[in-house]
Design a protein that fits this description.
Pfam families: zf-RVT. By secondary structure, this protein is mostly helical. The protein is 50% helix and 1% strand. The protein has helices at residues 18-21, 23-28, 36-39, 57-70, 93-104, 120-130, 137-142, 162-168, 170-183, 194-202, 207-233, 240-258, 266-271, and strands spanning 40-41, 44-45. A two-stranded antiparallel ribbon has the order 1-2. The protein is elongated and about 90 Å long.
């Protein structure tokens, strides 16, 4: 029996609190905080009212309540909570977090990806990139902030959104082309940043090859972003060959320091990275 549940104020019968469903009867009750056990004794329901219910609305509500009670089957088991988000009806932090995330986080075409072979800051950066939450010039303007120009700070030709910065800018396009030559793979023409992650999942490849490509792709977008920041904030001059060299070195450092199953030869990494482990 729901001994510890309030007869009127708890939703112990899963049809809503009865103080809201039967307000006229609740007004007649002398003990608004009474428990279910206070109203059920030896197989019968009993009441404590200031007066007997009258005909009309009070009588109709009493008849409706008794109809519901007649179909209830009570037992002596103790009360317990159930959690509807799990088939087991038991509460888990994982299911609670899933509910909170679904209600508060922006939707994304891809689940959050976490690559354990690159630093956490790069994983967070890539997640923001997928959600279009990086402070590109277009995004800054859309937040109502005035800036001198929304043109790409690298080529100074097109509006600077994430797709242009990381893929379609002349410099970015050439970087990806050189990365493809280094990987010895014809590089696809990505139309948007989502295509980078789609390419990882769609291409037939070994598990190790996928790990290597993921590290290289993440290193590439990270280096492009840092290169862009140096151009804007440090007014730095650049050589495109140095950008690709930085991708090669950083991706090697990330992977060799975090992949524990085997060592990675530097010379092999330079010549044929997909076969280096």
């Amino acid at each position: 029996m729901a001994e510890a549940s309030s007869f009127w104020e708890d939703d112990w019968n899963e049809s809503g609190p009865w103080n809201l469903k039967f307000p006229r009867l609740y007004a007649l009750e002398t003990n608004h905080s009474c428990l279910v056990a206070d109203r059920y004794s030896q197989g019968h329901w009993s009441w404590q009212c200031r007066r007997n219910p009258r005909d009309g609305e009070e009588g109709s509500q009493l008849a409706a309540l008794m109809e519901i009670l007649s179909h209830l089957s009570l037992d002596s088991n103790p009360d317990y909570w159930t959690w509807e988000a799990e088939k087991s009806k038991k509460f888990t932090v994982q299911s609670a977090r899933r509910i909170i995330d679904n209600r508060t986080l922006p939707s994304c075409l891809f689940p959050t990806c976490w690559c354990k072979y690159v630093p956490s800051k790069i994983n967070i950066f890539s997640w923001r990139l997928l959600l279009n939450r990086l402070p590109t010039r277009i995004n800054i303007v859309e937040k109502g902030i005035d800036i001198p120009s929304i043109l790409c700070s690298i080529c100074n030709l097109h509006h600077k959104d994430a797709d242009h910065l990381f893929l379609h800018c002349e410099v970015a396009s050439q970087i990806w082309h050189k990365v493809g030559i280094w990987l010895d793979q014809p590089f696809p023409n990505f139309s948007c940043v989502y295509d980078i992650w789609e390419n990882l999942d769609e291409q037939p490849q070994t598990r190790n090859a996928k790990i290597i490509k993921e590290v290289i792709f993440l290193s590439t977008v990270w280096v492009i972003w840092n290169f862009r920041n140096n151009v804007i904030f440090n007014n730095s001059k650049f050589q495109r060959s140095n950008i690709v060299d930085s991708i090669v070195v950083k991706s090697f450092d990330f992977l060799s320091s975090r992949y524990k199953k085997s060592s990675i030869d530097w010379n092999m990494w330079l010549q044929s990275p997909l076969n280096s482990m």
